[in-house]
Specification:
- It is built from 2 helices and no strands.
- It is about 45% helix and about 0% strand.
- By secondary structure, the chain is mostly helical.
């Protein structure tokens, strides 16, 4: 991919090249969820855990469905 578009958006960089840059950071600030910046408005840890588990269970069920359809 990177060889096809050396100046494109999705080009690859060597770790060493990134670390040599001034203020090197892999912080993907544009992906932050604005609702997560106010720590007082975060759900309780138990609620977060349950949401994560629900998402994982759903993903696992999807993978199992795909696996079953291949057999």
């Amino acid at each position: 991919m990177g060889e096809d578009t050396p100046d494109g958006r999705w080009r690859a960089y060597a770790r060493e090249d990134l670390l040599q840059r001034d203020k090197a950071s892999l912080d993907l600030f544009w992906l932050r969820d604005a609702s997560m910046t106010d720590l007082d408005s975060l759900p309780a840890p138990e609620v977060l855990v349950e949401e994560i588990l629900d998402n994982l269970r759903s993903a696992l069920a999807s993978f199992e469905a795909v696996s079953a359809s291949d057999q």
